[in-house]
Amino acid sequence: MPVVVIANPKGGVGKTTLATNLAGYFARHGHAVMLGDTDRQQSSRAWLNLRPESAPPISTWDIDADNIARPPKGTTHVVLDTPAGLHGWRYSDVMKLAHRVVVPLQPSMFDILATQDFLAKLAGDKRVRHGEVPVGVIGMRVDVRTRAAEQLQRFVEGLGLPVLGYLRDTQNYVQLAAHGLTLWDVAPSRVARDWEQWQPILRWLDGKGGVVTEGPAAVG
């Protein structure tokens, strides 16, 4: 089963926003998706508790008597939300599971500096270098017309990694999250601009690497 890891050791960059909306996308397409939360704050699990029964289902970790987390039976897609400060053995364990890694990054110089060592580590990872685990960066809360967006693009490409797209700063994510919902759970006309921004990201996920996005309820 494909596992998409959302990772950045810096907090407050939008990891949970990405993770929940990606899980919502897979669920909207009829997949049996699990949203795993490896962060102690358990933000994704708290969000799932808000999700209405009428929305496409998203599962979370099953915990057995030995406290070993595992995907629920029948899971076809996994999205992992990771904690700030991801490093050491936890980084190694997450990378062993990953089929693709998505790094959310805000365009400020402070965020770039705080993330550069992590991105360099990813770029140098053996599985990444050999093309086994593709890595992509998503600019968060970005106006693509600004110099900040251009600066982020140059920095990431200098590491040999692709910028998959940019997501704007909008209350849509905030308001939907407050109800356990995603962009894919509401009328397209309400979030048309945001759907458009997600298209290059979804095309990358649907490429080589086994992350299948087609399904019986595919969005046109």
Describe this structure in words.
With 220 residues, the chain is of the alpha/beta class. It has one domain: Rossmann fold. The chain is built from 8 helices and 8 strands. It has helices at residues 15-28, 43-50, 88-97, 109-124, 126-129, 147-158, 171-177, 192-205, and strands spanning 3-6, 33-37, 62-63, 69-70, 77-81, 100-105, 135-140, 163-167. The strands form 2 sheets. The chain has a 6-stranded parallel beta sheet, sandwiched between helices. The chain has a two-stranded antiparallel ribbon with strand order 3-4. Strand 3 and strand 4 (69-70) form a beta hairpin. It starts with a strand and ends in a 15-residue tail after the last helix. 37% of the residues are buried.
Rg (CA only): 16 Å
What fold name goes in the CATH topology slot?
Answer: Rossmann fold
- Uncertain residue segments: 212-220
Cα-to-Cα separation, first versus last residue: 24 Å
Helix content class: 25-40%
Strand order of the largest sheet: 2-5-1-6-7-8
Sheet having the most strands: 6 strands, parallel
Work out the number of β strands: 8
Helices and strands, with pairings:
Blueprint: E1 3-6, H1 15-28, E2 33-37, H2 43-50, E3 62-63, E4 69-70, E5 77-81, H3 88-97, E6 100-105, H4 109-124, H5 126-129, E7 135-140, H6 147-158, E8 163-167, H7 171-177, H8 192-205
Parallel strand pairs: 1-5, 1-6, 2-5, 6-7, 7-8
Antiparallel strand pairs: 3-4
